[in-house]
Amino acid sequence: MDEKIIILDFGSQTTQLIGRRIRELNTYCEIVPYNKFPHGDKTVKGVILSGSPFSVNDEEAFKLDLSEIRKKYPVLGICYGAQLIAQSEGAFVSKADSREYGNTQLTASAKDDLFEDILNISTVWMSHGDTIANLPDNFQLTASTVDVEVAAYHIKGEPTWGVQFHPEVTHTEEGTKILSNFLNICGCKRNWTPASFVKSTVRNLKQELGNDKVILALSGGVDSSVTAVLLHKAIGENLTCVFVDHGLLRKNEFEDVLTDYEHLGLNVIGVNAKERFFKELAGVKDPEQKRKIIGKGFIDVFDAEAHKLEDIKWLAQGTIYPDIIESLSITGTVIKSHHNVGGLPEKMNLKLCEPLSLLFKDEVRQIGLELGMKPYLIHRHPFPGPGLGIRILGDITPEKVRIAQEADYIFISNLRSANLYDKVWQAGAILLPVQSVGVMGDERTYENTIALRAVTSTDAMTADWSQLPYEFLAKVSNEIINKVKGVNRVVYDISSKPPATIEWE
Question: Which of 128, 154, 166, 232 is catalytic?
Answer without folding.
Answer: 166
